[in-house]
Amino acid sequence: TAPPPSAQCKAQGSRAEKSERERERKKKPTRVVHFRELLSPLCFLPVFICSYMFLAPVFGYLGDRYNRKYIMSGGITFWSLVTLASSYTPKEHFWALLLTRGLVGVGEASYSTIAPTIIADLYVKSKRTNMLSIFYFAIPVGSGLGYIVGSQVSSRAKDWHWALRVTPGLGLIAVLLLLFVVKEPKRGAVEARPENRLHQTSWLADLRDLSKNRSFMLSTFGFTAVAFVTGSLALWAPTFLFRAAVFNGERAPCMEAHCESSDSLIFGAITCVTGVLGVASGVQVSRQLRKKTARADPLVCAAGLLLCAPFLYLAIMFAQASTVATYVFIFFGETFLSMNWAIVADILLYVVVPTRRSTAEALQIVVSHLLGDAGSPYLIGVISDSLRKNDSFLWQFRSLQFSMLLCAFVAVVGGAFFLGTAVYIERDRERAENYAPTGETPLCVVLAADWR
């Protein structure tokens, strides 16, 4: 059966924003150069992520207290406008381009912190998992489309500005769907017991409770490992494959700012396909395993990362011998890496009470990006430069190869965090389902109640 309109339009908006993020990454030239030479074009990514991390707690606070549909609509509208504006900034005003790219984080923060909580208030149990899987299909699909569309539009127009003029139209469609299709559900209405009326607590009380929620914190650190690996691969995998081909003599070195290469296109296609397969297989395996154990979700997430690690290792080591084998190992590694997208979101939603979910989403976003993909591409690049002994094609390839092995190690660490989550998941889920505020819990007086 077709997914409901609300899930469809949420996925539409998420695909648009994920595609925008990946197009931002496409600005990195394909030249074989030192990492320090890439600092200028790569500065867009951390500016975006920093603004995203700063704004996520703000939207998390608002999302737990006001009308979520209007907040998302406003955020996506603003995102679309600044994206379009950034494509018209003149060359001599680099600061304006940097500012507008940073403001893109407004739309991302408004959407990613709030949309899953609306899905949680519309569905429960297995149906909620299904709807979350539809929503999180948009992440890998949008990422892959960002590589494909971004590279093709920039190549055909011979100007990267045109890649930024595609997504504002998609953002407008998402806003219209949100305003006219999605209905604002009552928080916790589909799952709260009648005798346990949920009360809104202060933001500090929310943060204090979340920090004591071991399942939430451990799964957040596990997801941080996913973000670390994903960010590193997204930024460095095409360059690594290109350097491997140059080292093997399969391609001529490219010293120009814009190099013709199929690596980004192939990697984008693999990201699309493996994302869909990974999310779908993770949900299906988890559903079957739930019949045997209540710890199924974190165990599946752990298995995904632990299985991802050896395939990443093989992909990195086989690059010098066989390009085909490398792509095959990347395919399996990214499939296992994508298994936990929807499951991690589901874990958060059932171990956190409804009135704290947007804040929990925001906290998870901040931690996973701050310790994950905000710095992992730079860390890989710095390690690569420190290992390089000279500027030969051999060391340009070898240094990046050795530095990318860190991704396999981080995947194993992330798997360990999810195994730790499995220890506490049953207790924390029962605590959230039977949550009843006490008289000592500080209540928050909410203004603008008509926004609810």
TrEMBL record:
It catalyses: a 1-acyl-sn-glycero-3-phosphoethanolamine(out) + H(+)(out) = a 1-acyl-sn-glycero-3-phosphoethanolamine(in) + H(+)(in); a 1-O-(1Z-alkenyl)-sn-glycero-3-phosphoethanolamine(out) + H(+)(out) = a 1-O-(1Z-alkenyl)-sn-glycero-3-phosphoethanolamine(in) + H(+)(in); a 1-O-(1Z-alkenyl)-sn-glycero-3-phosphocholine(out) + H(+)(out) = a 1-O-(1Z-alkenyl)-sn-glycero-3-phosphocholine(in) + H(+)(in); a 1-acyl-sn-glycero-3-phosphocholine(out) + H(+)(out) = a 1-acyl-sn-glycero-3-phosphocholine(in) + H(+)(in). CDD domains: MFS_spinster_like (cd17328). The keyword DNA-binding does not apply. Residues 1-28 are annotated as: Disordered. It is a multi-pass membrane protein. The chain crosses the membrane at residues 38-63, 70-88, 94-119, 131-150, 162-182, 216-237, 265-286, 298-321, 327-353, 365-383, 403-425. It holds the Pfam family MFS_1. Residues 1-426 form the Major facilitator superfamily (MFS) profile domain. Keywords: Lipid transport, Lysosome, Membrane, Transmembrane, Transmembrane helix, Transport. Its main location: membrane. GO terms for cellular component: lysosomal membrane. PROSITE patterns: MFS. It is found in: Lysosome membrane. GO terms for molecular function: transmembrane transporter activity. One of its GO terms (biological process) is lipid transport. Belongs to the major facilitator superfamily. Spinster (TC 2.A.1.49) family. This is Protein spinster homolog 1.
